[in-house]
Design brief:
about 190 residues; alpha/beta; three-stranded parallel β-sheet; 7 strands
Length: about 190
């Protein structure tokens, strides 16, 4: 969302340079999910809607259901501050928050790094639903998260080393395959 200006080259969305897109429109089109989820004091509904009046309680409920956050949200007191939520539950809450805003472009920055095994399946399902029909840019070290991507770009020290699908990269027998095999051993 243009937090930093581009040093070289350009970024295009549907063929339009992002410098030509109104900043509010650009930021409204991009939903970002990060590794560390900020949960603020207040109820779950306001943590999902971020107190945006345009997001109805129905939108909040629907978003929570779609990303598997509904079962644990139903059990929580309304004043919950997030301290008793697991890392996975916090992440599901942030998915619901992002989904409630219905962005066209999704940026996931290590969004699966801190998840516990208890919520791993829920998060995998929630991610698939969250990404459905959206352009998604996913930064991840956990390769199981990105295996189904249309295109994987392998970077090392800021340089693109390889790109392709999961199968194409395995067949190249390069850096991606080495990383994949290392993670399989873990």
């Amino acid at each position: 969302g243009r937090y930093f200006d581009i040093q070289k080259g350009q970024i295009l969305i549907d063929g339009i340079d992002i410098h030509e897109i109104d900043l509010d429109v650009l930021r409204g089109a991009i939903g970002q999910v990060q590794q560390d989820v900020f949960i603020f004091t207040g109820d779950i509904k306001s943590n999902i809607s971020l107190n945006n009046e345009a997001i109805s309680p129905d939108n909040v409920r629907q978003a929570a259901e779609i990303v598997n956050a509904d079962p644990f949200i139903q059990k929580l007191p309304v004043t919950e501050r997030g301290s008793t939520l697991s890392a996975g539950q916090r992440q599901l809450l942030s998915f619901a928050r992002t989904l409630a805003y219905d962005p066209k472009i999704l940026v996931l920055d290590e969004a699966t790094a801190n998840i516990d095994t208890e919520t791993e399946t829920l998060i995998t399902q929630a991610l698939a639903r969250l990404m459905d029909g959206r352009t998604t840019i996913m930064v991840a070290h956990r390769l199981s998260t990105i295996q189904h991507a249309d295109k994987i770009i392998v970077m090392h020290h800021g340089e693109i080393k390889e790109s392709g699908t999961h199968q194409e990269l395995l067949a190249k027998d390069g850096l991606y395959k080495k990383l994949y095999e290392l993670q399989l051993m873990d």
